[in-house]
Design a protein that fits this description.
This protein is of the alpha+beta class and 243 residues long. The protein is built from nine helices and five strands. The longest helix has 29 residues.
Amino acid sequence: MVTPQSSGEMPRDPRAAFAELSKIMLGEQELAETLARVAELAKQCIPGAAEASVTLVHDDQVATVVFTGSLASQLDERQYEAGFGPCVDAALSGTTIAIEDTEASSTYPDFARLARRQGVTHTLSTGLPVQRRTIGALNLYGTDKAAFDGTTRELATAFASYAAVALANADLYASTANLAANLQRALESRAVIDQAKGILMRDHRISPDAAFDRLVQLSNEGNRKVRDIAQDIVDDVQRDPRD
């Protein structure tokens, strides 16, 4: 289980984060570095954000490209499997979507239950707007008892605006090749996870949800990414194929 930011270091001054984002210019650093820095800055300056991730949209496909920890990746991935969820809907609509209490979410009950089992009590996803379009979403996961309040939501919205400009300046919006490459890697990860789930379903006669939960459990136990656990399972089968 992740440790809430509020239990450790004090949040960073948002003004310093905004200043850093505004100075990111085209070509000064790699796209992946910019994306990773956006996620890390969000975790540092938004109170109560235990983990953060960035979802990108390209040709109506969504994928998480960067995250501050495996928990964010796992929860985002479950939404992509279902085809909807707060980060997916925020990325596609450009709106801000919150789950104030994962014990009682009528809109996203399955996702909320999974998040609660992983220690997440509330979530916030905010669209990343660029030139009248939305290129993705900033996703925040909280583990405190209290949900993100109105002030925190306003801060997340302001951060998302700065982050979107920073990503555009880093050639995210203009460079289809870079974006497509990042999405392709993310989609390949999903394909491997789907294969691993199928293997677990066959071997243990369990449902798709139970198979994914098993991957998450192995990920937590080994402190490794779900994608890497899935790849190991697929590789093992390829080395020792069954009749």
